[in-house]
């Protein structure tokens, strides 16, 4: 710990020294270049602390992407933003339409069950998305996205230990406007989105935004000749801003979305020796020389397979929120009332082979209600905010698994007797969360500002589940027999706090330090449980709350007359009872892999982030973001349901590459007729990462680069634009998730990342 603290202090000292050495030159620079000039870096205004502030002036590690940047970079869904934020990973374990696994600075939960929200909150217009299935959605007509790093325990509705991602929609204005954007590219991929905005009368403004994404998908089904894994999404959002009086503003948000498409199939990699039937070595598996339990060897091409399931994935979501802001003389009162509903069914071709080896039907429905009250006030020397929060969610799961159903076809009649099975699991989970929170920041000396915040949380969770199993008997499957049933209740209380110091060395140079604690409530294993009732009861033991203490130091600077921005942060997280997930292999013949959700006693995360933005030439904007991460388990022995203890001490946390790097450049070239050609490029790099806590060498993605590019022509006045783009220009092959089902099925599941795509796009403003 002492050694790492020394590294932290050296990092900050270096940043302060660089900033201080540049300050004199900056102050001596001529001219009045400010944020309104095109030749300087623009101010980025965020609401990370529930008020509008320059991102450079707040003692918080936050990355922000504005709506135009999102559109220029081809961001169409919530998981796309990970390509542009250091130390952020977002993967979809079932492909398009599935719930995301979000990891910020190594903090995440790779549980594929649909009842456990991860340690990173997802907010849309200040409304927490409680169901994991609702956290993957289309992004359109956004003002910006903010990624907050570190525990969010004093301001945000749901306490989180890792961070928060906040999506902010563009609000209605009283200036009539409209826009439509369309793109078309590889794999018959298209997008159409737009908005209409303007006043309905003197006190009501409205904005209607829409989006439609379509694609055949880049995975090829050799059985049918069709492509799979595409999209067929529709979404509409309507905002009404109503001002009944000069002191009261209401914002009504009504939204609806739907997706219906062939699901993204896995790439199957066999793990059994075709000669002996035993397990292959790691080298043999990586050489693609092995087969699954049926003896099937799939195509080595990452984007092709023989898939026997062609049912569609369906996702439907809708909701409404009402925000009221009432201004008194010295205080602003805010109320946010929200209702969210989502439903997802996913017919997973789990084995990705022609016969029925393993198939799972995932079904989840969630309905949630939340209410937040806030009061805020103060002035330039002191600001405060406090509030109350309540959330109630009911979540239903309906899951069916089918295993070895074609065993008789492969090994002869009777081979499936007592082995082939149909299993069912239904559950109902109810979560009630209550919280009181507050934060204040005030000047304690000239240029020195102190932030203090606290929160008390009480959560109640009930979980009722029933499991049933039917084994093949005389070539048929009789009525399922109940194998487990439970009705559990869990309550957690916790207090969390934050303290930060921010010192203004110069008007554009800030250094800060902070200490924050975070809390994530306990929960239940919502996956398939063991067929043995004793083992199932073990799986149903609730996991305990996880807690973290996070230390951070950093600096934020605008230099060289605001043509250079250099920010940095170093952090250290100390975890207790970190919640971790593992898919435990079968231990006995006839058993299936089972989900294990447990607490790791300790974990530590150390890291550094650097951000460099510059405008070296008129029209040229460049940025470089670097992230370094060392995220590891402490002393931890993982015990399976029926397996012996496995020492995982020192293992790297899932989805935590040691280094991430993101570089972007945009060069706007003025033409003689006042039109503009803009050339944009972005590159992202990630070192090796594991997809499970066991650091399985078969569940790893090596280091890789992704390169995107765009060229866009904008007409005089910017009324319309036309461009071409490419994503993954070099055709890098990589995976975004993996699962080991070697025992007893004999294969590894891999989710392929998107290959190279090219396309054209156009935008028209009215």
UniProtKB/TrEMBL annotation:
Membrane topology per the record?
Multi-pass membrane protein
GO cellular component entries: cell outer membrane
Task: Domain (TonB-dependent receptor plug): give its ranges.
Answer: 55-164
Q: Where does the TonB-dependent receptor-like beta-barrel domain lie?
A: 300-728
Q: Which UniProt keywords apply?
A: Cell outer membrane, Ion transport, Iron, Iron transport, Membrane, Signal, TonB box, Transmembrane, Transmembrane beta strand, Transport
Q: Which InterPro entries match?
A: Beta-barrel_TonB, Beta-barrel_TonB_sf, Plug_dom, TonB-dep_rcpt-like, TonB_rcpt_CS
Which terms under GO biological process does the entry name? iron ion transport
> Motif location (TonB C-terminal box)?
749-766
User: What does UniProt give as the signal peptide span?
Assistant: 1-25
Places the protein is found: Cell outer membrane
User: CDD domains under this entry?
Assistant: ligand_gated_channel
Name the Pfam families on file. Answer: Plug, TonB_dep_Rec_b-barrel
* Similarity comment text for this entry: Belongs to the TonB-dependent receptor family.
- Protein's name in the database: TonB-dependent receptor
- Origin organism is Nitrospirillum viridazoti CBAmc
């Amino acid at each position: 710990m002492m050694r790492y603290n020394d590294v932290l202090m050296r990092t900050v000292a270096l940043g302060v020294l660089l900033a201080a050495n540049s300050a004199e030159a900056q102050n001596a620079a001529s001219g009045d270049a400010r944020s309104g000039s095109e030749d300087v870096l623009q101010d980025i205004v965020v609401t990370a602390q529930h008020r509008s502030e320059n991102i450079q002036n707040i003692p918080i590690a936050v990355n922000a992407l504005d709506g135009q940047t999102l559109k220029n970079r081809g961001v169409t869904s919530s998981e796309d933003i990970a390509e542009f934020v250091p130390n952020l990973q977002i993967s979809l374990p079932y492909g398009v339409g599935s719930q995301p696994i979000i990891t910020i600075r190594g903090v995440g939960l790779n549980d594929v069950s649909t009842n456990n929200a991860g340690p990173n909150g997802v907010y849309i217009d200040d409304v927490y998305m409680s169901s994991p299935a609702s956290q993957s959605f289309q992004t359109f007509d956004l003002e910006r996205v903010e990624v907050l790093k570190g525990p969010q325990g004093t301001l945000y509705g749901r306490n989180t230990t890792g961070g928060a991602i906040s999506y902010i929609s563009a609000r209605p204005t009283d200036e009539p406007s409209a826009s439509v954007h369309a793109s078309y590219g590889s794999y018959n991929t298209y997008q159409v989105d737009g908005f209409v905005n303007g006043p309905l009368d003197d006190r009501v403004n409205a904005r209607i935004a829409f989006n439609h994404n379509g694609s055949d998908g880049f995975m090829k089904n050799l059985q049918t000749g069709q492509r799979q894994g595409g999209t067929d999404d529709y979404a509409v959002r309507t905002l009404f801003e109503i001002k009944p009086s000069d002191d009261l503003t209401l914002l009504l948000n009504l939204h609806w979305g739907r997706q219906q498409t062939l699901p993204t199939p896995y790439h199957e990699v066999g793990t059994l020796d075709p000669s002996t039937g035993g397990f292959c070595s790691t080298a043999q598996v990586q050489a693609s020389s092995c087969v699954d339990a049926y003896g099937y060897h799939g195509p080595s091409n990452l984007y092709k397979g023989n898939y026997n399931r062609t049912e569609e994935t369906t996702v439907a979501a809708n909701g409404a929120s009402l925000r009221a802001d009432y201004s008194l003389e010295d205080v602003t009162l805010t109320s946010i009332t929200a209702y969210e509903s989502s439903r997802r069914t996913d017919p997973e071709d789990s084995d990705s082979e022609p016969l029925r080896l393993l198939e799972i039907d995932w079904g989840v429905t969630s309905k949630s209600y939340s209410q937040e009250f806030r009061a805020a006030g103060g002035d330039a020397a002191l600001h405060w905010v406090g509030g109350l929060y309540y959330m109630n969610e009911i979540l239903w799961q309906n899951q069916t698994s089918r295993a070895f159903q074609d065993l008789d076809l492969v090994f002869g009649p009777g081979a499936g007797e007592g082995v082939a099975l149909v299993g069912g699991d239904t559950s109902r989970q109810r979560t009630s969360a209550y919280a009181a929170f507050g934060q204040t920041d005030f000047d304690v000396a000239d240029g020195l500002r102190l932030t203090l915040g606290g929160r008390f949380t009480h959560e109640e969770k009930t979980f009722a589940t029933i499991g049933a199993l039917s084994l093949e008997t005389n070539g048929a499957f009789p009525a399922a027999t109940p194998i487990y049933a439970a009705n559990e209740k869990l309550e957690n209380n916790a207090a969390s706090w934050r303290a930060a110091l921010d010192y203004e060395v110069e008007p554009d140079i800030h250094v800060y330090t902070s200490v924050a604690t975070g809390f994530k409530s306990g929960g239940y294993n919502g996956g398939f449980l063991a067929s043995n009732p004793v083992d199932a009861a073990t799986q149903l033991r609730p996991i305990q709350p996880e807690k973290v203490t996070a230390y951070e130091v950093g600096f934020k600077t605008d230099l060289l007359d605001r043509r250079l921005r250099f920010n940095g942060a170093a952090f250290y997280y100390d975890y207790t009872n970190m919640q971790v997930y593992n898919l435990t292999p079968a231990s006995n013949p006839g058993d299936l892999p089972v989900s294990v959700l447990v607490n790791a006693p300790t974990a530590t995360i150390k890291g550094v982030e650097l951000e460099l933005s510059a405008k070296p030439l008129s029209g040229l904007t460049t940025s470089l973001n670097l992230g370094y991460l060392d995220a590891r388990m402490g002393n931890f022995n993982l015990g399976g349901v029926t397996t012996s203890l496995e020492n995982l001490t020192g293992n790297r946390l899932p989805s935590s590459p040691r280094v991430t790097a993101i570089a972007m450049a945009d060069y706007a070239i003025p033409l003689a007729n006042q039109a503009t050609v803009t050339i944009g490029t972005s590159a992202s790099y990630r070192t090796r990462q594991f997809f499970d806590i066991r650091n399985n060498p078969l569940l790893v993605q090596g280091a890789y680069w992704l390169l995107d590019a765009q060229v866009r022509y904008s007409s005089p006045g910017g009324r319309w634009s036309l461009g071409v783009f490419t994503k993954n220009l070099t055709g890098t092959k990589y995976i975004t998730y993996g699962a080991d089902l070697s025992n007893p099925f004999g294969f590894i599941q891999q989710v392929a990342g998107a290959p190279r795509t090219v396309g054209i796009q156009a935008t028209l403003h009215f």
